[in-house]
Protein backbone atom coordinates (compact mmCIF):
# COMPACT_ATOMS: atom_id res chain seq x y z
CA UNK A 1 0.00 0.00 0.00
CA UNK A 2 1.31 3.45 -0.89
CA UNK A 3 2.08 5.74 2.04
CA UNK A 4 2.94 9.44 1.78
CA UNK A 5 6.32 10.49 3.26
CA UNK A 6 4.39 12.25 6.04
CA UNK A 7 2.61 9.00 6.88
CA UNK A 8 5.94 7.14 6.99
CA UNK A 9 7.16 9.73 9.48
CA UNK A 10 4.08 9.22 11.64
CA UNK A 11 4.65 5.46 11.62
CA UNK A 12 8.30 6.02 12.57
CA UNK A 13 7.09 7.78 15.69
CA UNK A 14 8.16 11.32 14.77
CA UNK A 15 4.80 12.62 16.03
CA UNK A 16 4.68 10.45 19.12
CA UNK A 17 3.89 6.90 20.07
CA UNK A 18 0.11 7.28 20.19
CA UNK A 19 -0.23 8.73 16.69
CA UNK A 20 2.04 6.00 15.33
CA UNK A 21 -0.07 3.31 16.98
CA UNK A 22 -3.28 4.86 15.65
CA UNK A 23 -1.96 5.06 12.11
CA UNK A 24 -0.62 1.52 12.27
CA UNK A 25 -4.12 0.29 13.15
CA UNK A 26 -5.69 2.35 10.34
CA UNK A 27 -3.15 0.95 7.86
CA UNK A 28 -4.02 -2.60 8.96
CA UNK A 29 -7.72 -1.91 8.36
CA UNK A 30 -6.88 -0.32 5.00
CA UNK A 31 -4.86 -3.36 3.93
CA UNK A 32 -7.67 -5.71 4.94
CA UNK A 33 -10.07 -3.59 2.87
CA UNK A 34 -7.74 -3.73 -0.14
CA UNK A 35 -7.12 0.05 -0.13
CA UNK A 36 -4.30 1.37 -2.32
CA UNK A 37 -3.69 4.32 -0.02
CA UNK A 38 -5.14 6.43 2.78
CA UNK A 39 -7.17 9.62 2.53
CA UNK A 40 -6.88 12.69 4.76
CA UNK A 41 -10.07 13.33 6.65
CA UNK A 42 -11.59 16.65 7.61
CA UNK A 43 -13.64 15.59 10.65
CA UNK A 44 -14.37 12.57 12.83
CA UNK A 45 -17.41 11.62 14.86
CA UNK A 46 -16.91 9.03 17.59
CA UNK A 47 -19.79 6.78 18.69
CA UNK A 48 -19.97 3.90 21.15
CA UNK A 49 -19.25 6.08 24.15
CA UNK A 50 -22.07 5.00 26.48
CA UNK A 51 -20.76 3.00 29.43
CA UNK A 52 -23.93 0.92 29.02
CA UNK A 53 -22.55 -0.28 25.66
CA UNK A 54 -18.76 -0.34 25.99
CA UNK A 55 -18.32 -1.35 29.64
CA UNK A 56 -15.01 -1.54 31.52
CA UNK A 57 -13.07 -2.81 28.52
CA UNK A 58 -14.01 0.22 26.43
CA UNK A 59 -13.24 2.57 29.30
CA UNK A 60 -9.76 1.04 29.74
CA UNK A 61 -9.07 1.29 26.00
CA UNK A 62 -9.92 5.00 25.99
CA UNK A 63 -8.04 5.85 29.18
CA UNK A 64 -5.03 3.91 27.92
CA UNK A 65 -4.96 5.93 24.71
CA UNK A 66 -5.33 9.21 26.59
CA UNK A 67 -2.51 8.23 29.00
CA UNK A 68 -0.20 7.62 26.06
CA UNK A 69 -0.78 11.20 24.96
CA UNK A 70 -3.10 10.54 22.01
CA UNK A 71 -4.61 13.71 20.52
CA UNK A 72 -6.97 14.06 17.58
CA UNK A 73 -5.48 15.65 14.45
CA UNK A 74 -8.82 16.88 13.06
CA UNK A 75 -11.96 18.37 14.63
CA UNK A 76 -13.84 15.55 16.30
CA UNK A 77 -17.17 15.20 18.08
CA UNK A 78 -18.83 12.71 20.44
CA UNK A 79 -22.03 10.70 20.17
CA UNK A 80 -24.51 10.64 23.08
CA UNK A 81 -23.46 8.97 26.33
CA UNK A 82 -25.38 7.04 28.97
CA UNK A 83 -27.12 9.99 30.67
CA UNK A 84 -27.77 13.72 30.71
CA UNK A 85 -24.59 15.16 32.24
CA UNK A 86 -26.65 17.58 34.36
CA UNK A 87 -29.90 15.69 35.03
CA UNK A 88 -28.32 12.28 35.66
CA UNK A 89 -29.56 12.15 39.29
CA UNK A 90 -33.11 11.89 37.89
CA UNK A 91 -32.26 9.08 35.46
CA UNK A 92 -31.82 6.24 37.92
CA UNK A 93 -28.14 5.68 37.14
CA UNK A 94 -25.96 3.97 39.71
CA UNK A 95 -22.96 5.73 41.24
CA UNK A 96 -20.61 3.30 39.48
CA UNK A 97 -22.25 3.93 36.09
CA UNK A 98 -22.17 7.69 36.65
CA UNK A 99 -18.47 7.76 37.57
CA UNK A 100 -17.41 5.54 34.70
CA UNK A 101 -19.45 7.44 32.11
CA UNK A 102 -17.82 10.70 33.20
CA UNK A 103 -14.39 9.00 32.94
CA UNK A 104 -15.19 7.98 29.34
CA UNK A 105 -16.15 11.55 28.45
CA UNK A 106 -13.02 12.88 30.17
CA UNK A 107 -10.69 10.44 28.40
CA UNK A 108 -12.14 11.43 25.03
CA UNK A 109 -12.09 15.14 25.92
CA UNK A 110 -8.44 14.84 26.99
CA UNK A 111 -7.72 13.56 23.48
CA UNK A 112 -9.43 16.61 22.01
CA UNK A 113 -12.80 15.08 21.08
CA UNK A 114 -15.41 17.79 21.77
CA UNK A 115 -18.10 16.57 24.20
CA UNK A 116 -20.97 17.52 21.90
CA UNK A 117 -22.75 14.29 22.94
CA UNK A 118 -25.17 14.39 20.04
CA UNK A 119 -25.83 11.97 17.19
CA UNK A 120 -26.71 14.75 14.75
CA UNK A 121 -23.29 16.31 14.03
CA UNK A 122 -24.56 17.01 10.50
CA UNK A 123 -26.77 19.77 11.93
CA UNK A 124 -23.83 21.61 13.51
CA UNK A 125 -20.50 20.77 11.87
CA UNK A 126 -19.27 22.39 8.68
CA UNK A 127 -19.29 19.32 6.41
CA UNK A 128 -19.66 19.85 2.68
CA UNK A 129 -20.28 17.85 -0.45
CA UNK A 130 -17.24 15.72 -1.32
CA UNK A 131 -15.53 16.07 2.10
CA UNK A 132 -13.89 12.91 3.42
CA UNK A 133 -14.79 12.34 7.06
CA UNK A 134 -14.66 9.41 9.53
CA UNK A 135 -18.00 9.03 11.26
CA UNK A 136 -19.22 6.17 13.35
CA UNK A 137 -22.88 6.65 14.19
CA UNK A 138 -25.06 4.98 11.59
CA UNK A 139 -27.69 7.72 11.30
CA UNK A 140 -24.96 10.36 11.00
CA UNK A 141 -23.01 8.29 8.46
CA UNK A 142 -26.16 7.85 6.39
CA UNK A 143 -27.02 11.55 6.56
CA UNK A 144 -23.48 12.64 5.67
CA UNK A 145 -23.27 10.32 2.66
CA UNK A 146 -26.87 10.44 1.46
CA UNK A 147 -27.92 14.05 2.05
CA UNK A 148 -24.73 16.10 2.21
CA UNK A 149 -22.76 14.01 -0.28
CA UNK A 150 -19.76 13.84 2.05
CA UNK A 151 -17.82 10.57 2.17
CA UNK A 152 -17.47 8.26 5.11
CA UNK A 153 -17.56 4.58 5.79
CA UNK A 154 -19.79 3.25 8.51
CA UNK A 155 -16.95 2.88 10.96
CA UNK A 156 -17.04 1.51 14.49
CA UNK A 157 -16.38 3.95 17.34
CA UNK A 158 -12.80 2.80 18.08
CA UNK A 159 -11.79 3.00 14.41
CA UNK A 160 -13.27 6.51 14.05
CA UNK A 161 -11.21 7.57 17.05
CA UNK A 162 -8.01 6.07 15.61
CA UNK A 163 -8.79 7.82 12.31
CA UNK A 164 -9.28 11.08 14.20
CA UNK A 165 -5.89 10.66 15.91
CA UNK A 166 -4.04 9.75 12.71
CA UNK A 167 -6.08 12.17 10.55
CA UNK A 168 -6.43 9.44 7.91
CA UNK A 169 -8.94 6.84 6.78
CA UNK A 170 -8.52 3.95 4.36
CA UNK A 171 -9.36 5.09 0.82
CA UNK A 172 -11.89 2.30 0.43
CA UNK A 173 -15.61 1.62 0.58
CA UNK A 174 -17.77 4.73 0.40
CA UNK A 175 -14.73 7.01 0.04
CA UNK A 176 -14.55 5.75 -3.57
CA UNK A 177 -16.90 6.71 -6.44
CA UNK A 178 -17.13 3.11 -7.58
CA UNK A 179 -18.83 2.03 -4.33
CA UNK A 180 -21.38 4.84 -4.32
CA UNK A 181 -23.45 3.56 -7.21
CA UNK A 182 -26.93 2.14 -6.64
CA UNK A 183 -27.07 -1.66 -6.33
CA UNK A 184 -30.82 -1.97 -5.77
CA UNK A 185 -33.69 0.32 -6.81
CA UNK A 186 -36.55 0.46 -4.31
CA UNK A 187 -39.60 1.99 -5.89
CA UNK A 188 -42.17 3.32 -3.42
CA UNK A 189 -44.57 4.81 -5.96
CA UNK A 190 -47.41 2.35 -5.25
CA UNK A 191 -47.09 2.91 -1.50
CA UNK A 192 -46.33 6.61 -1.58
CA UNK A 193 -49.88 7.73 -0.78
CA UNK A 194 -50.13 5.80 2.50
CA UNK A 195 -46.58 6.80 3.47
CA UNK A 196 -47.14 10.46 2.75
CA UNK A 197 -50.64 10.75 4.22
CA UNK A 198 -49.70 8.92 7.41
CA UNK A 199 -46.13 10.24 7.53
CA UNK A 200 -44.67 6.73 7.74
CA UNK A 201 -41.14 7.56 6.60
CA UNK A 202 -39.67 5.73 9.58
CA UNK A 203 -41.53 2.57 8.49
CA UNK A 204 -40.26 3.08 4.94
CA UNK A 205 -36.77 3.30 6.45
CA UNK A 206 -37.15 0.01 8.34
CA UNK A 207 -38.25 -1.60 5.08
CA UNK A 208 -35.34 -0.11 3.09
CA UNK A 209 -32.83 -1.51 5.60
CA UNK A 210 -34.43 -4.96 5.49
CA UNK A 211 -34.48 -5.09 1.70
CA UNK A 212 -31.10 -3.51 0.98
CA UNK A 213 -28.96 -5.00 3.77
CA UNK A 214 -25.41 -3.94 2.88
CA UNK A 215 -26.26 -2.79 -0.66
CA UNK A 216 -26.54 0.86 -1.68
CA UNK A 217 -30.22 1.36 -2.47
CA UNK A 218 -31.70 4.03 -4.71
CA UNK A 219 -35.06 5.02 -3.21
CA UNK A 220 -37.65 6.41 -5.59
CA UNK A 221 -41.18 7.67 -5.35
CA UNK A 222 -41.32 8.95 -1.76
CA UNK A 223 -41.71 12.59 -2.77
CA UNK A 224 -39.14 13.78 -0.22
CA UNK A 225 -37.01 16.89 -0.72
CA UNK A 226 -33.91 18.23 1.04
CA UNK A 227 -36.17 20.50 3.09
CA UNK A 228 -37.88 17.50 4.74
CA UNK A 229 -35.07 17.19 7.27
CA UNK A 230 -37.18 15.54 9.98
CA UNK A 231 -38.60 12.83 7.72
CA UNK A 232 -35.25 12.19 6.03
CA UNK A 233 -33.58 11.85 9.46
CA UNK A 234 -36.21 9.36 10.63
CA UNK A 235 -36.02 7.38 7.40
CA UNK A 236 -32.23 7.11 7.33
CA UNK A 237 -31.92 6.27 11.02
CA UNK A 238 -34.45 3.44 10.62
CA UNK A 239 -32.74 2.14 7.47
CA UNK A 240 -29.43 2.08 9.35
CA UNK A 241 -31.03 0.05 12.17
CA UNK A 242 -32.33 -2.78 9.99
CA UNK A 243 -29.64 -2.56 7.30
CA UNK A 244 -25.86 -2.40 7.27
CA UNK A 245 -25.43 0.08 4.43
CA UNK A 246 -23.80 3.51 4.82
CA UNK A 247 -25.44 5.24 1.88
CA UNK A 248 -29.07 5.45 0.75
CA UNK A 249 -29.50 7.40 -2.46
CA UNK A 250 -32.84 9.18 -2.29
CA UNK A 251 -34.36 10.54 -5.43
CA UNK A 252 -34.57 14.33 -5.23
CA UNK A 253 -32.62 14.48 -1.95
CA UNK A 254 -29.17 12.97 -2.57
CA UNK A 255 -26.90 15.43 -4.38
CA UNK A 256 -24.85 12.84 -6.26
CA UNK A 257 -25.42 11.84 -9.84
CA UNK A 258 -26.16 8.17 -10.25
CA UNK A 259 -26.99 5.79 -13.04
CA UNK A 260 -29.38 2.95 -12.23
CA UNK A 261 -29.49 1.38 -15.68
CA UNK A 262 -29.68 -2.40 -15.37
CA UNK A 263 -29.88 -2.36 -11.56
CA UNK A 264 -32.26 -4.85 -9.88
CA UNK A 265 -35.55 -3.19 -8.91
CA UNK A 266 -38.25 -3.92 -6.34
CA UNK A 267 -41.62 -2.19 -6.08
CA UNK A 268 -43.17 -1.73 -2.68
CA UNK A 269 -46.76 -2.81 -2.16
CA UNK A 270 -48.67 -0.78 0.47
CA UNK A 271 -49.45 -4.07 2.26
CA UNK A 272 -45.74 -4.55 2.92
CA UNK A 273 -45.56 -1.14 4.62
CA UNK A 274 -48.48 -2.13 6.88
CA UNK A 275 -46.86 -5.46 7.69
CA UNK A 276 -43.58 -3.86 8.78
CA UNK A 277 -45.48 -1.30 10.85
CA UNK A 278 -47.43 -4.11 12.57
CA UNK A 279 -44.17 -5.53 13.93
CA UNK A 280 -43.86 -2.46 16.16
CA UNK A 281 -47.40 -2.01 17.42
CA UNK A 282 -47.51 -3.66 20.81
CA UNK A 283 -50.58 -2.99 22.97
CA UNK A 284 -49.55 -0.76 25.83
CA UNK A 285 -51.31 -0.14 29.11
CA UNK A 286 -49.55 3.13 29.86
CA UNK A 287 -46.63 4.04 27.64
CA UNK A 288 -44.15 6.88 28.00
CA UNK A 289 -43.65 8.92 24.84
CA UNK A 290 -39.99 9.14 23.79
CA UNK A 291 -39.04 11.44 20.91
CA UNK A 292 -35.61 12.35 19.58
CA UNK A 293 -33.96 9.44 17.82
CA UNK A 294 -32.02 10.91 16.08
CA UNK A 295 -31.73 13.92 18.41
CA UNK A 296 -34.38 16.57 17.80
CA UNK A 297 -33.30 19.70 15.96
CA UNK A 298 -34.20 23.13 17.35
CA UNK A 299 -37.06 23.36 14.86
CA UNK A 300 -38.46 20.02 15.99
CA UNK A 301 -38.29 20.99 19.67
CA UNK A 302 -40.03 24.28 18.86
CA UNK A 303 -42.81 22.30 17.15
CA UNK A 304 -43.36 20.32 20.35
CA UNK A 305 -43.31 23.54 22.41
CA UNK A 306 -45.92 25.01 20.11
CA UNK A 307 -48.06 21.84 20.38
CA UNK A 308 -48.09 22.13 24.18
CA UNK A 309 -48.55 25.89 24.23
CA UNK A 310 -52.16 25.29 23.14
CA UNK A 311 -52.81 22.42 25.55
CA UNK A 312 -52.72 21.49 29.21
CA UNK A 313 -50.39 18.95 30.77
CA UNK A 314 -49.58 15.66 29.11
CA UNK A 315 -51.52 12.78 30.71
CA UNK A 316 -48.63 10.47 29.88
CA UNK A 317 -45.03 11.51 30.36
CA UNK A 318 -43.12 12.75 27.33
CA UNK A 319 -39.30 12.57 27.08
CA UNK A 320 -37.50 14.65 24.46
CA UNK A 321 -33.85 14.01 23.57
CA UNK A 322 -31.76 16.67 21.89
CA UNK A 323 -28.32 18.25 21.76
CA UNK A 324 -26.97 20.44 24.58
CA UNK A 325 -26.90 23.31 22.09
CA UNK A 326 -30.65 23.06 21.47
CA UNK A 327 -31.35 22.48 25.17
CA UNK A 328 -29.49 25.68 26.07
CA UNK A 329 -31.14 27.69 23.33
CA UNK A 330 -34.71 26.96 24.46
CA UNK A 331 -33.92 28.40 27.92
CA UNK A 332 -37.01 28.89 30.08
CA UNK A 333 -39.16 26.57 27.96
CA UNK A 334 -37.46 23.58 29.60
CA UNK A 335 -39.15 24.44 32.91
CA UNK A 336 -42.49 25.30 31.26
CA UNK A 337 -42.47 21.93 29.52
CA UNK A 338 -41.55 20.13 32.74
CA UNK A 339 -44.63 21.59 34.39
CA UNK A 340 -46.63 20.00 31.57
CA UNK A 341 -45.11 16.57 32.18
CA UNK A 342 -42.69 16.95 29.25
CA UNK A 343 -39.00 16.37 30.11
CA UNK A 344 -36.10 17.50 27.94
CA UNK A 345 -32.78 15.67 28.10
CA UNK A 346 -29.49 16.42 26.40
CA UNK A 347 -26.27 14.40 25.93
CA UNK A 348 -28.08 11.03 25.83
CA UNK A 349 -31.03 9.22 24.34
CA UNK A 350 -33.70 6.63 25.08
CA UNK A 351 -31.59 3.80 23.64
CA UNK A 352 -28.21 4.39 25.31
CA UNK A 353 -29.48 5.52 28.73
CA UNK A 354 -31.01 3.12 31.31
CA UNK A 355 -34.55 4.00 30.20
CA UNK A 356 -36.46 1.44 32.28
CA UNK A 357 -35.02 3.03 35.44
CA UNK A 358 -36.71 6.38 34.81
CA UNK A 359 -39.45 5.69 32.26
CA UNK A 360 -40.68 2.12 32.66
CA UNK A 361 -40.93 -0.72 30.17
CA UNK A 362 -43.55 0.60 27.73
CA UNK A 363 -42.74 3.24 25.15
CA UNK A 364 -44.41 5.11 22.33
CA UNK A 365 -42.00 6.54 19.78
CA UNK A 366 -42.00 8.00 16.29
CA UNK A 367 -38.55 6.60 15.56
CA UNK A 368 -38.10 3.36 13.64
CA UNK A 369 -34.54 3.11 14.94
CA UNK A 370 -35.56 3.54 18.59
CA UNK A 371 -38.45 1.09 18.11
CA UNK A 372 -36.06 -1.48 16.61
CA UNK A 373 -33.45 -1.24 19.37
CA UNK A 374 -35.84 -0.85 22.31
CA UNK A 375 -37.84 -3.86 21.18
CA UNK A 376 -34.60 -5.84 20.98
CA UNK A 377 -33.86 -4.74 24.57
CA UNK A 378 -37.20 -6.18 25.71
CA UNK A 379 -39.36 -3.03 25.89
CA UNK A 380 -42.96 -3.04 24.69
CA UNK A 381 -43.06 -0.55 21.83
CA UNK A 382 -45.72 1.28 19.85
CA UNK A 383 -44.39 3.02 16.73
CA UNK A 384 -46.53 6.03 15.84
CA UNK A 385 -46.09 9.23 13.88
CA UNK A 386 -44.98 12.28 15.86
CA UNK A 387 -48.49 13.76 15.75
CA UNK A 388 -50.03 10.49 16.93
CA UNK A 389 -47.45 10.13 19.70
CA UNK A 390 -48.17 13.63 20.99
CA UNK A 391 -51.92 13.06 20.69
CA UNK A 392 -51.47 9.86 22.73
CA UNK A 393 -49.61 11.84 25.38
CA UNK A 394 -52.43 14.34 25.84
CA UNK A 395 -55.26 11.81 25.41
CA UNK A 396 -56.47 13.16 22.06
CA UNK A 397 -56.19 9.92 20.12
CA UNK A 398 -58.71 9.29 17.41
FE1 LIG B 1 -29.10 8.99 18.29
FE2 LIG B 1 -29.58 7.37 20.28
FE3 LIG B 1 -31.03 7.22 18.13
S1 LIG B 1 -27.61 7.96 19.58
S2 LIG B 1 -29.77 7.91 16.47
S3 LIG B 1 -30.91 8.97 19.52
S4 LIG B 1 -30.20 5.52 19.24
Characterization of this structure:
The chain is α/β, with parallel strands linked by helices. It folds into 3 domains: 5-177, Aconitase, domain 3 (2-Layer Sandwich); 181-278, no CATH class; 288-393, Rossmann fold. It is 42% helix and 14% strand. It has helices at residues 5-11, 17-32, 51-67, 95-110, 138-148, 157-166, 192-198, 201-212, 229-242, 270-278, 298-309, 324-329, 333-339, 355-359, 368-376, 386-394, and strands spanning 38-40, 44-46, 76-78, 134-135, 168-170, 184-187, 217-220, 249-250, 265-267, 288-296, 318-322, 342-346, 362-365, 380-383. A 5-stranded parallel beta sheet has the order 12-11-10-13-14, sandwiched between helices. The model has no long low-confidence stretch (mean pLDDT 97). The site of FE3-S4 cluster (F3S) has 14 residues, from strand 10 and helix 15. One of its GO terms (molecular function) is lyase activity.
Quick overview:
With 398 residues, the chain is of the alpha/beta class. The chain is 42% helix and 14% strand. It has a 5-stranded parallel sheet with strand order 12-11-10-13-14, with helices on both faces.
Estimate what percentage of residues fall within beta strands. 5-15%
* CATH top-level class of the largest domain: Alpha Beta
| Strand arrangement, major sheet | 12-11-10-13-14
N- and C-termini, Cα separation: 62 Å
Average pLDDT value?
97
| Low-confidence parts | none
Q: What would you call the shape?
A: globular
- SSE succession: HHEEHEHEHHEEHHEHEEHEHEHHEHEHEH
Question: From the 3D coordinates, which CATH architecture of the largest domain would you assign?
Answer: 2-Layer Sandwich
Amino acid sequence: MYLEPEEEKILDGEYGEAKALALKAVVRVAEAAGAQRLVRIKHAHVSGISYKNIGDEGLEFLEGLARRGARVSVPATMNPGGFDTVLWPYMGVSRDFMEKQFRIIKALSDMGVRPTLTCTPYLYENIQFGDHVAWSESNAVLYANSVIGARTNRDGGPLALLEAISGRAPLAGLHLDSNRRPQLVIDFREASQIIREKSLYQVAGLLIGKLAGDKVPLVKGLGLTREDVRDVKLLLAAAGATGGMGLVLIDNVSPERYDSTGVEKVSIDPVLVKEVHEEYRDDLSDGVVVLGCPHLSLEEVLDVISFFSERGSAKRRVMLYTSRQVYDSIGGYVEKLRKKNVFVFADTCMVVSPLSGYAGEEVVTDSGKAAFYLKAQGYRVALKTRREALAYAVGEEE
